[in-house]
Specification:
With 519 residues, the protein is α+β, with helices and mostly antiparallel strands. The chain has helices at 57-67, 69-89, 172-175, 177-240, 248-281, 284-288, 310-320, 322-344, 364-369, 391-458, 464-498, 502-505, and strands at 52-55, 95-108, 114-129, 135-147, 153-165, 293-296, 348-361, 377-385. It has a domain at 11-88 and 177-334 and 398-505: Up-down Bundle (Outer membrane efflux proteins (OEP)), CATH 1.20.1600.10. 55% of the residues lie in helices and 17% in strands. Helix 4 runs antiparallel to helix 5 (248-281), helix 4 runs antiparallel to helix 8 (322-344) and helix 10 (391-458) packs antiparallel against helix 11.
């Protein structure tokens, strides 16, 4: 187990294995917008304004892992859980104890004779419990006793006490079970953190591509509005020279109004996504208003290796998904609980042995020297204890067995869900990839359709309404082309998330990388 903490990595030095260098035609080259200034617009990418944050998708992921408050909360969980390991290890740490007492007394018997006495003792001991269950105590004691006019008598003793369980509490398996469970809990928290980190990365990527799409939609709608304004002006001119009837202007103005509505909605969506992106990567800027604009430096493209065979993705999911590994760990934890409850069924029978050497003298030094003499004390025995009926232990045992069976069924269910999730995501990736080619072909046909309709309008063989419809169809196709690309990228991210390999594929390191064997 990696005990170096829970940081995903020195994040500033993370390796990002994927790049986004290409550009897509749909969002580029928008004409200068002749839109009136009453429509709010977002800052252009590359703006020198200090309140503009320009990020690539790689930077966005790293900033989220460094700055997101939820990550900071979750990052502490494995460290907190690991403290329970130290707590269990403390069971086997030696314990030192020491103490001293003093006493005095005065007695009077029935004959009226009085006697008094005084004395005291001090001692220290070191006690240690071993993994086998044995407890050993080694100690030393010195004491003074005097009274009734007798000379002072000093005593010193060295002793060793051993207690060894014979039935309940005997053996490394049962005494290390709680420590093993604490270590499994630490692994569980690492997989939980890994699952959270992968979900956050997927959320950042999806939000980033949504923001890219929203900005390109704004650019496309702005260009479309410019064409609608140009078409309206041309219609008015032809009406003035008598080439068109005045009824044609209504269609042109209606189309221009529709484009203005679309532009307002598109810009509002950009602002909403900007807030969501800041919440993910720079939450502190939301309260300070330090950043009022987020621009994207990565372009969506499908120029990437296609997903491999479905069987490979399923195998990866069964090995790497955090929830699958957590289910396996819970079964292992249940096995340790069974060991503990099986031990609880046994009666307690302990063997104890006590050995000691004691010296007596009229001085403290003399009593210590007398320890080498022939005197000694020894005692040994056996203690036995068993609850009548032992119902508590039997209930614990039955609960542990049923819980293990339940967790085995839960693991089978999680594995089935993992296979289903991966297959559905794989199908979605294939659909999205085909949709990219289909929308590109549709866009080419819509461009040809608009050119033809515009040419017919200029020679009087079409109407402004038909031209407006062709422009609207082209606008929808351009937006659909960009949307298809971003949908493909998000679908592929979802596939990697569902198979548990997203962090690895993005070159990021995090706890919980090693798959757990099937128990």
């Amino acid at each position: 187990m990696n005990r170096k903490g829970v940081a995903i990595l020195p994040l500033a030095g993370a390796l990002i294995l994927f790049l986004f260098p290409a550009q897509i035609r749909a969002g580029e080259g928008a004409a200068e917008n002749p839109v009136s200034h009453d429509i709010p617009s977002a800052a252009e990418p590359g703006s020198p304004s200090p309140d503009v944050l320009s990020v690539t998708i790689e930077q966005a992921v790293l900033m989220a892992l460094e700055n997101n408050r939820a990550v900071r909360v979750e990052r502490l969980s494995p460290s907190i859980t690991r403290t329970f390991e130290d707590q269990e290890l403390a069971t086997f740490d030696p314990v030192f104890s020491a103490g001293a007492t003093a006493f005095g007394q005065r007695d009077e018997d029935r004959r009226g004779l009085e006697g008094d006495g005084r004395g005291g003792e001090a001692g220290a001991a070191l006690v240690k419990k071993f993994e086998t269950g044995a407890t050993v105590s080694a100690g030393a004691m010195a004491g003074l006793d005097t009274g009734d006019g007798l000379p002072d008598q000093y005593a010193a003793r060295l002793g060793v006490d051993l207690t060894q369980p014979i039935l309940k509490g005997r053996g490394r398996a049962v005494n290390l079970a709680s420590l093993g469970q604490a270590r499994l809990d630490s692994l569980l928290s690492e997989y939980e953190f890994r699952g959270f980190a992968e979900s956050l990365v997927a959320q950042v990527e999806a939000t980033y591509w949504d923001l890219v799409l929203a900005r390109k939609r704004v650019a496309i709608v702005e260009e479309s509005l410019a064409l609608a304004v140009q078409q309206s002006d041309e219609t008015r001119h032809r009406i003035r020279v008598g080439n068109l009837a005045e009824t044609e202007i209504a269609a042109a103005e209606a189309e221009k109004a529709l484009r203005r509505e679309a532009l307002i909605n598109a810009r509002s969506q950009v602002e909403s996504l900007r807030v969501r992106m800041l919440r993910l990567i720079r939450p502190q800027d939301l309260s300070t208003l330090a950043v009022r604009e987020v621009t994207t430096g990565s372009e969506p493209t499908v120029d990437r290796p296609a997903p491999g065979p479905l069987a490979d993705h399923v195998a990866t999911a069964l090995a790497m998904r955090p929830d699958v590994n957590q289910a396996r760990l819970l079964i292992q934890r249940g096995d340790l609980e069974i060991v503990k409850t099986r031990n609880g069924l046994l009666p307690r029978m302990d063997l104890f042995v006590s050995l000691g050497k004691t010296g007596y003298a009229d001085s403290f030094g003399g009593s210590v020297g007398d320890l080498t003499g022939q005197g000694y004390d020894i005692s040994a025995g056996v203690t036995f204890e068993r609850p009548l009926g032992n119902r508590d232990a039997r209930a614990r045992r039955e609960r542990a067995l049923l819980t293990r069976e339940q967790r085995q069924e839960a693991l089978a269910n999680v594995r089935d869900l993992a296979c289903q999730d991966v297959e559905l995501a794989y199908i979605e990736v294939g659909r999205a990839r085909l949709l990219v080619d289909a929308t590109a072909a549709t866009l080419r046909f819509q461009e040809e359709k608009l050119r033809a309709e515009t040419a017919k309008f200029r020679v009087g063989k079409s109407t402004g309404l038909l031209v407006a419809q062709a422009q609207r169809d082209l606008l929808a196709s351009r937006v659909a082309e960009v949307e298809a690309v971003t949908t493909f990228l998000k679908a592929r991210t979802s596939l990697f998330l569902l198979e548990g390999s997203l962090l690895t594929r993005r070159g990021l390191s995090a706890p919980g990388e090693a798959p757990q064997p099937y128990p």
